[in-house]
Amino acid sequence: MLHVYLQIARRCVDLHALLGTALSERNTQRQLVDVKQVALPRATIQALIDGYHAGESTYRLAERFGILRNTVRDALRRHGVAVSGAKVQLLSEDDKAEIRERRQLGETIAALAYDFAVSPITIRRALR
User: Fold this and answer.
1) What is the DSSP string of 25-94?
2) What is the pLDDT of residue 34?
3) Which of 28, 37, 43, 71 has its CA 20 to 30 A from that of 51?
4) Looking at the whole model, is its pTM more than 0.90?
């Protein structure tokens, strides 16, 4: 019986050593990125403001300029732009009326969402 416990102990020591080696290799392979906080140029901030006022979302602006969405939001707020969760009304009142009419005729929410290029949730909200 003691022999079995010694074998288990040796395996634990071997596993511990193997795990330690793997972790140290992973840490040496990990590259630390030096992130520097850089102020956005005035031209970029103005482009963000113009894009947001034109109806572009903070997500799209962040993607277009290669920055974080929070950076876009913070820059807009610092320059007096009121940032809300839903900036653009995706459906006009005419679209909503058409959606209600087509839904009463039996069209599915998924088909309506596809036709109007919006999410099914937006269609459900229009049906309220």
Assistant:
1) HHHHHPPPP-----PPPHHHHHHHHHHHHTT--HHHHHHHHTS-HHHHHHHHHHTT----S--S--S-HH
2) 55
3) 37
4) no
